[in-house]
Every structure is written in C-alpha cells, then in structure tokens.
C-alpha cells in the first residue's frame, strides 16, 4: 500500500468517527482522483481564481472614476 492510499484510508477512518459522519453516510468509500480529473479540478480552480482576481482588480481600478 502506498502512502497516498494510506492517507486516504486514514482520512476515511477519521471521517467515519466524527459526529458529522452520522448525518452523512457515503455509499462508497472515497478514492483518489485520476490524473485527468485532478488536472480538471486544478484548471477549474485556477480559472475561477483568475476571474475573481480580475473582477476585484476591475472594481478597485474603476471605483475612483465612478464613485
């Protein structure tokens, strides 16, 4: 068993013993993402961060002109 599998096992074990686990029951055991899935998650995270950062820049740079 590699270290990533052990980490996932440890997190799943800890999650099952928290009080919140009684509210939510998983049907399946959590597994690691594939390389493609992880890259898509990273791309989505980067894109959302870029959009929000650019929006904050636009709001800050134009607030003096209009208000």
TrEMBL record:
Transmembrane annotation, as ranges: 40-60
Name of the molecule in the record: PsaB
Signal peptide annotation: none
InterPro entries per the UniProt record, alphabetical: PSI_PsaA/B, PSI_PsaA/B_sf
Species this protein is from: Rhynchospora breviuscula
GO cellular component, as recorded: chloroplast thylakoid membrane
Superkingdom: Eukaryota
Membrane as UniProt keyword: yes
Pfam hit, one: PsaA_PsaB
GO BP, sorted A to Z: photosynthesis
Keywords of the record: Membrane, Transmembrane, Transmembrane helix
């Amino acid at each position: 068993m590699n270290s990533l599998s052990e980490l996932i096992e440890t997190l799943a074990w800890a999650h099952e013993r928290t009080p919140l686990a009684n509210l939510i029951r998983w049907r399946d055991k959590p597994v690691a993402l594939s390389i493609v899935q992880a890259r898509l998650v990273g791309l989505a995270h980067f894109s959302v961060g870029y959009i929000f950062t650019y929006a904050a820049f636009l709001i800050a740079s134009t607030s003096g002109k209009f208000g």
